[in-house]
Amino acid sequence: MLNPSQPGGRPRLPSDLEPTDVDQVVTAVLTASRLLVAVSARSLASVEDTLTLPQFRMLVVLDSRGAMSLSRLAEHLAVNPSTAMRMADRLTAIGMVSRRESEADRRSVRLALTEAGQHTVAHATARRRAEIAGIVAAIPPGQRADLVRALHTFAVAGGEPPASDW
C-alpha cells in the first residue's frame, strides 16, 4: 500500500510487498482505479456534461469495436440487454448513437456511433490523455516501463483491446 505521509510527500511501497499477494495487487489496482475514474469523469465533464460514465463507456465500446447488435453490446458492457437498450435509447435521442438494420438480417438492428458520438469520444479521450500524461510525468522514468508492462497485462487479462486498436 502507498504511504502518502512519507517525508517529502513521496509515496513509497511497503517493504513487505509480495507481488504474488492477490490482495495487495487488488488494493493497488483499486487505488489506481479511483484516480482513473476521477480523471475520466473530469475529461467527460469538460466535453459533454450530460453523459454518465456508463453511457460514455457504451460510446467507447462502439468506437473501439465498431457497430454491433444490442445483445453483443450488452455483453461487452456486462449489463442486461434492457439496461443497454435504455442507454442506447438515450444516446440515440441526443444524436450520439444510430440504429441501422443489419445487412445480414433485417430483423436485427445494429448500433453505431454517429459523428457526434465519435467527436465526443475523441475529445474526452484527448483530455483524459493529457491529464494522464501529467501524472505519468511525475513517475520516475526508470519505473515507467514496468508500469506499461503491468497495465498491458492487466488490460489483456480483462479483455480490453489496446488503445492502438481504436
Observed structural traits:
166 residues; mainly alpha; 3-stranded antiparallel β-sheet; disordered N terminus
Topology:
Layout: H1 22-47, H2 53-65, E1 68-69, H3 70-77, H4 81-93, E2 97-101, E3 109-113, H5 115-137, H6 141-157
Antiparallel strand pairs: 1-3, 2-3
Helix pairs in contact: 1-5, 3-4
Span from first to last CA? 33 Å
Please report the total strand number as a whole number: 3
What count of helical segments does DSSP give? 6
Which band does the percent of strand residues land in? 5-15%
Structural shape: globular
Quaternary state reads: single chain
Low-pLDDT parts are 1-7
Quickly give the structural class.
mainly alpha
Helical amount among residues, as a percent range?
55-70%
Round the Cα radius of gyration to an integer and report it: 19 Å
Order of helices and strands: HHEHHEEHH
**Mean pLDDT over the residues:** 86
Strands in their spatial order, largest beta sheet = 1-3-2
**Biggest sheet statistics:** 3 strands, antiparallel
Written description of the protein model:
With about 170 residues, the chain is mainly alpha-helical. It contains six helices and three strands, in the order ααβααββαα. Strands 1-3-2 form a three-stranded antiparallel β-sheet. A hairpin with a 7-residue loop joins β2 and β3. The longest helix is centred in the N-terminal third of the chain and has 26 residues. The radius of gyration is 19 Å and the shape is globular. It starts with about 20 loop residues before the first helix and ends in a 9-residue tail after the last helix.
